[in-house]
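Let's sit down with a protein and look at its sequence and fold side by side. We need material for that, and I hope you will provide a protein of your own picking. Once you have written the record down, we can walk along the chain together.

***
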Amino acid sequence: MSRIGKKAVAIPAGVTASINDRTLVVTGPKGELSLTLVDDISYTIEGAQIAVLPATETRRARAFWGMQRTLVSNLVTGVSDGFTKVLVITGVGYRASVQGTNLKLQLGYSHDVDYAIPDGITIKTPDPTTVEITGSDKQRVGQVAAEIRRWRKPEPYKGKGIKYRGEVIFRKEGKKK
């Protein structure tokens, strides 16, 4: 029995949800998101809640139950509040800036890295060493953050590179004399 799946997803004010042809469409102030529904799970909209329950007693239905409820919850949160990932750049001379529809990264290479900002994603640089990625789709926000981080992952000796805010980098000891 899924503890997460048993809880219904609350729909806040200003957000609407509808089920059309095995697709759940959620619309809110931050946009519209949709999810293709799985046959093993039944979805019902009751007032201001979306209930997600297994349609059958199969092992696959029980396995998908909690995950599908979380995906529905992410849709509702995305169109109402949105998602944010913050990257922190550490290193001498490492910096970032937004120029039009590109994110310009200076990461110690012989050239600057230009990252094209995808549609539906907003990137801000409040200071040269912080990059804020926001959007309504949690998966796309995480994917963009991972693609930017891939240019210079944090290294274990000095900790230089791009890391997520709150991420802990385990540092190695240097040579002992």
